């Protein structure tokens, strides 16, 4: 739209030079201050029809956000949590997760896009210079504020009405607890289940690769293998949560190389069984140095000496790996003689 098609009263007026601006440097003012650049009006500033179009665009974006939010709630209520769909090129995805992510993303994006379009096309974009002023209040203002506060406290009779004061403080103290109670719906409390695993007396040690019980002859000196309790299956619904506590690391040492007395008592012919879960942040330990008998966590390099009670010799782990006491049953298979004597994983005091 050219300027001659716009009504004259809508055209911007000539901008005056900013107050105090020095256009040309001289001896008294060696640095020129050109002030702010002249303001250039947008088409929405001078054409109401363009402004209406921007208004409708912003309203459309906000409406799409509302519809996406309704879609988010509907997806959560109606889509089964185990339903999967194929989305090219992402492949097979959980239908509920895809719908929730898509609708929430659209809802948030359109709110942001609407706000940005509103600010860029309809809100005032003219820069205004303001002279700096002292941040600190003057003595007169501070004195007045203090006086007003004292007067307000006096008029509230909070000093004389102790019953009101005490009950008000009690109400303000207790009301945040309602939010704490809502945290209960985040999930069931763990109780003491984090202190126990599926290991118990008589449970056979099953090789995680072959799913077969382990005989002492299957474990050679210097080898590292991983085991799980008898009766566990990867198809079990709670397999992941249980194996995260029960995963076992089996190493065979020369009995003479074992320095810790209890470790030797809890072993069988030099075969020791330790938790595979690092005591730092719970990563699975998978590296073993045969010559030094050191087990290394690949996440943060915590190192444990398996010949000396699996104590920490390097890294951020807080305590040694829990050991599982093992023996041999009548059929010659390795079996557990109980559960771990302490919780597996990181930080004992966090384990419930």
UniProtKB/TrEMBL annotation:
Residues 1-42 are annotated as: Disordered. GO terms for molecular function: 2 iron, 2 sulfur cluster binding; metal ion binding; monooxygenase activity; oxidoreductase activity, acting on paired donors, with incorporation or reduction of molecular oxygen. GO terms for cellular component: plasma membrane. SUPFAM superfamilies: ISP domain (SSF50022). Keywords: 2Fe-2S, Cell membrane, Disulfide bond, Electron transport, Iron, Iron-sulfur, Membrane, Metal-binding, Oxidoreductase, Respiratory chain, Transmembrane, Transmembrane helix, Transport. It is found in: Cell membrane. Pfam families: QcrA_N, Rieske. Belongs to the Rieske iron-sulfur protein family. This is Cytochrome bc1 complex Rieske iron-sulfur subunit. It comes from Streptomyces tagetis.
